[in-house]
Specification:
The protein is an alpha/beta fold. It is built from 17 helices and 13 strands. A 7-stranded parallel beta sheet has the order 3-2-1-4-5-6-7, with helices on both faces. α8 (194-201) crosses α12 (273-279) and α9 crosses α15 (329-341). It is globular, with a radius of gyration of 22 Å.
């Protein structure tokens, strides 16, 4: 009887990073064959899997000629033969348990349909169970309608925070849910010497540095909120310097907005984030939605204050005074202003210790592999 992983998302993101880390730990503890189906459209995932295949001779990789689409819920209904074909693949392997790596409920949902047809147990490993409407997706309401039934397909769930578990229940999940917090490299992300980090990155030595790290995309990440929040308070404009690390579809819009508002800033397309966190006074996560952001854990592990939208993994981790109403410029301004007036204190020692002791890569690897193996041996 075989253990199978399935990921048909064409996008390589943080969830794939965590999935591979968990797979690595599992392969180190489990000596029987493990199969991984991955779409060939996700070249980065295929490359990383090939590296793991070179490390573990009991990992078997199959590249799929298809990938999930933005209307996967509807597609599954209109083309039931796809699920039957995948069902036959799983049956030929003698699959006992299939782990569907799902960035959202539509990704890899084909595997859940195939498992239901074959009476094979399935696990959904999912970080973002938000509705398409909340995420601002095109045709969001229609996509939510056709994907609603998918939440009832898995036999169990793994997700990344209490907030995400609660959201799964709201979306209609009925199967047991276990939480496996994301993990980070606490040896890499640790406190450093601020002035040295600023010098290395050519950042102002005497300003309050507020940073946003990630894809520059206003619909979800909302970098524009930080610009608006700081520019609306003259005292913040004079004292703060904004640092944006990343690139994306709204990079040019961000540059134009910063120029129009006259806010001191630096834009770094991509960089090693470890010294960047050490240079910052605070990381800001103004996102409309998230799962459990790795950047939040990395910054806190580096003993850097984090401000975040009052939802999702930020609500799980951050104290009340460091959260602000979602998409609310005035509330973000007030939150930052209060912190500046207090002298820009670092995060509480208790919070930093929680991240470093409970959300390390080692803790994640142990939790992930334990949960999967427990489900496999039932």
């Amino acid at each position: 009887m075989s253990l199978v992983f399935y990921d048909d998302s064409p996008i390589f993101g943080g969830h794939e990073v965590m999935s591979l880390a968990g797979l690595d730990a599992l392969l180190n503890r489990y000596s029987k064959p493990v199969f991984f189906y991955a779409t060939e459209a996700n070249s980065t995932l295929c490359e990383r899997l090939a590296e793991l295949e070179g490390k573990y001779d009991h990992l078997r990789i199959s590249n799929l000629p298809w990938h999930s689409s933005k209307l996967e819920g509807l597609r599954n209904r209109l083309k039931p033969a796809r699920a039957r074909q995948l069902q036959q693949r799983f049956e030929r392997l003698g699959a006992k348990l299939v782990v569907a790596v799902q960035g959202n409920i539509e990704h890899s949902s084909l595997a859940l349909h195939a498992c239901k047809k074959a009476n094979i147990r399935s696990v959904s490993y999912i970080p973002v169970p938000h509705s398409n409407r909340v995420m601002g997706a095109k045709l969001g309401r229609m996509r939510d309608l056709f994907s609603r039934s998918i939440f009832k397909l898995p036999d169990s769930y793994l997700t990344i925070s209490e907030e995400m578990a609660s959201l799964l229940r709201q979306r209609g999940a009925v199967a047991p849910i276990k939480i496996v917090y994301n993990g980070i490299d606490i040896h890499r992300f640790q406190e450093g010497v601020s002035h040295e980090a600023r010098k290395g990155l050519q950042l102002p030595p005497n300003k309050i540095l507020l940073g946003v790290v990630g894809r520059v995309e206003f619909r979800q990440k909302q970098q524009q909120l930080l610009v608006e929040a700081v520019s609306s308070v003259p005292s913040l404009v004079g004292r703060c310097h904004l640092v944006f690390a990343g690139d994306g579809p709204d990079s040019d819009c961000l540059k134009r907005l910063l120029a129009a508002k006259g806010v001191s800033h630096t834009i770094i397309p991509w960089c090693d984030t470890a010294p960047l966190y050490q240079a910052l006074d605070a990381l800001v996560i103004p996102s409309r939605y998230e799962g459990l952001p790795l950047v939040m854990l990395e910054a806190l592990s580096s003993r850097i204050t984090v401000f975040g939208s009052d939802r999702d993994g930020m609500r799980d981790i951050l104290p009340d005074e460091y959260r602000f109403a979602v998409s609310n410029v005035a509330d973000l301004s007030r939150t930052i202003h209060k912190w500046v007036d207090k002298g820009c204190p670092p995060p509480a020692e208790e919070l930093v210790n929680r991240i470093r002791s409970k959300m390390s890569k080692e803790q994640f690897a142990e939790s992930f592999s334990r949960e999967i193996l427990a489900k496999l041996t039932r």
